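Example with several molecule types.
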Amino acid sequence: GEDVEQSLFLSVREGDSSVINCTYTDSSSTYLYWYKQEPGAGLQLLTYIFSNMDMKQDQRLTVLLNKKDKHLSLRIADTQTGDSAIYFCAERDPFESGYNKLIFGAGTRLAVHP
Amino acid sequence: ETGVTQTPRHLVMGMTNKKSLKCEQHLGHNAMYWYKQSAKKPLELMFVYSLEERVENNSVPSRFSPECPNSSHLFLHLHTLQPEDSALYLCASSRALTGGNQPQHFGDGTRLSIL
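Resulting structure tokens for the full complex:
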């Protein structure tokens, strides 16, 4: 079955790097996504990675994919208070449902303190 | 501004009321989705529409009735809801349902409270 797991909480000091981890079970996943949800808002697409890539960098964000271990991580460099939010990992499962169905993790709450 | 607008942002209703949630996307997308987000539970996919045709109905109770009159608009009609239906209802859209990278873009949601 499909399952995406994330740790629920992460606390970091402002200026440090944050690493949010995610594991997934469906080896046929083609795209994996990271979304950010701030209080009172919807999910904002941050970045994505295609399954034939190991790494993708976009400004302060670095996504690492270990396909063998089905492990995905999001690194945020120089974490700021504005990065405090819930971060969701999602895998795309095109096969079981036959369409672009996203399977979401439960989200990791990132708290940034001075 | 995500290009997906949901109204109202907040809704309080009694169990016997009838109300509707509205979603409009300005992205030229062909697929639209309704999700329910409850505290301490993963995001639940409720309904999926592609070109105004319902593709999926994830065992959602009949007190929730979706409507997609065109590819830019999606409604969720609510009738005789229960307290456990209190949640954040999120609308999303994607360019298409199949083929290549199809990230979903979300609105800010409607916070629904059932008295």
